[in-house]
Structure formats: C-alpha cells, structure tokens
Amino acid sequence: MTLRFLRRNAANIIVPVIFGVVLVAFWEFFVNWRDVKPYILPTPSSIWKEAVKRIHLLRSASAVSGENALIGLVLGVIVGTATAMIANRFRFLSELITPLSAAISAVPIVVIVSILNNMFRLGSQVPRRLMVLIIVFFVVFVNVARGLRQSDPTQVELMRSYAAHERQIMRKVRLPNAMPFLFTAIKVSAPISVTTAFVSEYFGGTQDGLGQKIPAALSNSKFALGWAYVGAACVLGLVFFAVANLLEFVAVPWQRKRSSR
Fold first, then answer.
1. Under 8 Å CB-to-CB from 82, ≥6 apart: which residues?
2. Would you say residue 261 has pLDDT above 70?
3. Predicted structure pTM score
4. Could you report the per-residue pLDDT of 175-212, keeping only the tens digit for each?
5. Which residues have CB under 8 Å from 115's CB, separation 6+?
6. Out of 124, 144, 154, 214, which residue is the most buried by the measure of CB atoms under 10 Å away?
7. For the chain, give me the number of helices (H) and strands (E)?
C-alpha cells in the first residue's frame, strides 16, 4: 500500500524538480545572453558560489527565521484547533470569532508588527512569533471548524443514542473527521509561516533573520549574497511544506488509503 502510494505520487516530486531545473537553466542563459547587470538580476551560478562561500551566514540567518516560523506555526495550530473545538461546542463563539479573525488577518502585517515591536524589548523575537501565530491561527481555525461541522450526522446520532457525552463525540467522531482538514491547514500554513516570519523581520527587530539580511546585503551592493538569502528562504519554506506532508502521511493513514484507490 505504501509503495503503491509513493509510486503514484512520484510525479508530484519529479515534475516540479524538472521544471525548477529548466527554469534555472533558462535564467542562467537569459542573463548571460542579454547581459543583464548583477544589480538587476544575478546569475544562478553566481548566487550558488556566494551561497557556498557564505554558507555559515545563510545557516545562521535561516536558523533564526526557521525558529520563529516553527514556534509561531506550532502555537497557531494549537490555538486555532482548540478555538475551533470550543466554537463548535458553543455556536455563538463561532459567530463571534470568525468575523473577528477575518478582520484581524486583513490588517497589513506591517501595522501589527509595528504594534507588537513597541510592546516588547528591541531584541525580542516574540513579536515575530506572535505575528506568525496570528496568521496561522486564522487558516487553522477556519479549516478545522469546517471539518468539525461536516461530521457524519449518522455517526453523531448513533453516538448520542448510546448516551455518549459531547466530549466523547468530539474525540470519537468529530476530531477524526477534522484531521484531513487540519493537515490541509498545516500544509497551507507551513510556507506561509516562513513568509510571515521573513516579512516580520524586515519591518523591525534584531538584525539576525533572513528578512533583515536581504536588504542589508543589497544595500551594500552584495547582490548575489542578497539573492542567496532569498534562496535560503525558499528552501526553508519548501522544508516546512515537505515536513507538513510527511506528518499528514504518518498521522492520517485513512486519508492515504483513500488517495491510493
């Protein structure tokens, strides 16, 4: 079953890799052919050389951004899931929280980050992590709440006919049904968490994350290094997305069986 599933989904990995290789090759060719200046667009080969040369800087900045994104992502998933479960139990909370979450998520990141930066000391990483939490919370809350609402009515009524408590219905029926929705939210939120941490770093705080390193490198005419930091952010987002897919593969086996049919 597992091998068949992996073979069926091999195209999901091979096709993007081939597309990426072709895109990078065309990028290299186009920049050399048109003699594009490095301050506009450096070649992939020069970016790669700079990345290898400055790998310690990339690793350090990626660790900071990755930690901020991971902590915010985990907290956002926990808070979003717990809030969706409570809102499913008390419908008036759902009607209150849903529009409020939508309104907060519509506020530009720079505004919220500026407020959070003023609430904590200058060197604190908390504002960036809270910003990630806020963005992830909305995605998780909406998806998990939907999964909880779409539980099979027959199964719910059967549990109630056995005098099951709402907590038992939640654990035995609603949560298993909401698991695919939860992991869909996690897969969406994983790369978004990296982007949010990245943008939050750009608008203030300590100078140690990818969001601060990119403009610093570009302002010093280190264009290849700046693009190397961009590449590190892309790799970080892909790693988060791949781990989210792996977690879904392990934690939701019934979804895997359904996909392999």
1. none
2. no
3. 0.88
4. 888 898 999 999 999 999 999 998 998 887 777 899 99
5. none
6. 144
7. 13, 0
Residue with tokens 């072709």: 22
Q: Locate tokens 């590190």: which residue?
A: 232
DSSP-assigned letter for residue 38: T
Task: Tell me the helix, strand and coil percentages in the chain, rounded to 5.
Answer: 85, 0, 15
Structure tokens at 5: 């599933």
CA end-to-end span of the chain: 10
CA-closest candidate to residue 200, choices 103, 104, 77, 110: 110
Distance (Å, rounded) from C-alpha 121 to C-alpha 117?
A: 7
37-259 placed in CATH 1.10.3720.10: yes
How far apart, in Å, are the Cα atoms of 203 and each of 71, 180, 199? 19, 35, 7
Percent of the chain with pLDDT over 90: 49
Average confidence score pLDDT of the chain:
87
Tokens of 239: 């790693």
The answer to whether residue 121 scores a pLDDT higher than 90 is no
Residue in the block written with tokens 């070649």: 43
pLDDT digits (tens, 9 = 90+) for 25-75: 999 999 999 999 999 999 999 999 999 999 999 999 999 999 999 999 999
Q: What span, in angstroms and rounded, lies between the C-alpha atoms of 174 and 116?
A: 35
Residues present in the chain in total: 261
d(CA 195, CA 209): 12
Domain ranges of the chain: 37-259
What is the C-alpha separation between 261 and 183, in angstroms, rounded? 20
Report DSSP letters for 46-85, one per residue.
Answer: HHHHHHHHTHHHHHHHHHHHHHHHHHHHHHHHHHHHHHHH
